[in-house]
Amino acid sequence: MATASGMALTVLLPTTAGASASGEPTVDAAAAEVTAVAAAPVTAAAEVDLHFQRAGLTSNFDPDAKLEQVMVASGSDAKAVSSEGTLSQPMEMDSMKMTSPFGMRVNPVTGYAGEMHTGQDYGAACGSPVYSAAGGTVKEAGWFGGYGNRVVVDHGNGLETTYNHLTSISAKVGDTVSRGELLAQSGTTGNSTGCHLHFEVVVNGDMVDPKGWL
Q1: CA separation (Å) from 91 to 159, 161, 193?
Q2: CA 28 – CA 19 distance, rounded (Å)
Q3: What confidence score (pLDDT) does residue 79 get?
Q4: Quick one: average pLDDT of 141-151?
Q5: Among candidates 64, 56, 57, which has minimal Cα distance to 87?
């Protein structure tokens, strides 16, 4: 908001004025007259308040469309620089804590120091909702050895995500799920030392760091 102080505001409108073959003004010529009027100075008294409003900007980013583009264009060569943000977090941010990242670590169950941790662990209370990180088809839903109760979602184009150590499973094999749809509840089944979700991203059969996709 600003207070006017005898200032003049000028508005200029573009025109392409012309005339018809008969010499009568065309529509553009009429527009020129409107422009001339609009270009006249506009003044306001010093005590008048002037209000200015800037239009808001919105984003139409579509993570599912970007995910498909990344996988079709890159396949097994997909890198974090292009894939970042294409998957959604599999749990609500306020209910989870990232506890063990992708990479080499000491196995908390066996104590073996040379283990490759193939996913991202999220510490959360047993029974916390687990959601699909993107749209796809449920490929597996059930017990899977050391992974405990497990769900695998096939997102197409060679990309899958897995959700492990679940206390219970809501999804069924063959279900078509949307991004953010409930799949299961976190737990501590299989080889686990406490309630958490072990989340994996698989590209053409290879485990990759989920951090580059979230």
Answers
A1: 19, 13, 19
A2: 8
A3: 54
A4: 97
A5: 64
> Is-contact 157 75, C-beta < 8 A?
yes
Q: Compute the residue count for the chain.
A: 214
Cα 112 to Cα 22: distance, rounded to the nearest angstrom: 95
Is-above-0.70 flag for pTM?
no
Distance, CA of 156 to CA of 174 (rounded, Å) = 13
Distances in whole angstroms, Cα of residue 190 to Cα of each of 19, 48, 145, 149, 178: 84, 73, 6, 7, 27
Pick the closest to residue 72 from 155, 148, 175 (CA basis): 155
Joined together, the tokens standing for residue 212 give: 């580059």
Kindly calculate the radius of gyration of the chain based on its CA atoms and give it in whole angstroms: 30
Separation between Cα atoms, residue 57 and residue 148, nearest integer Å: 46
Q: 3-state class of 71 per DSSP?
A: helix
The mean pLDDT of the chain is: 78
Distance of CA 193 to the CA centre of its chain: 31
Across 23-27, 102-106, 162-166, which has the greatest mean pLDDT? 162-166
Q: Is 61 exposed, middle or buried (0-12, 13-18, 19+ CB in 10 A)?
A: exposed
Contacts of 79-84 with C-beta under 8 Å, sequence gap 24+, read 79/212, 80/209, 80/211, 80/212, 80/213, 83/212, 83/213, 84/212, 84/213, 84/214
Between residues 20 and 116, the one the model is more confident about: 116
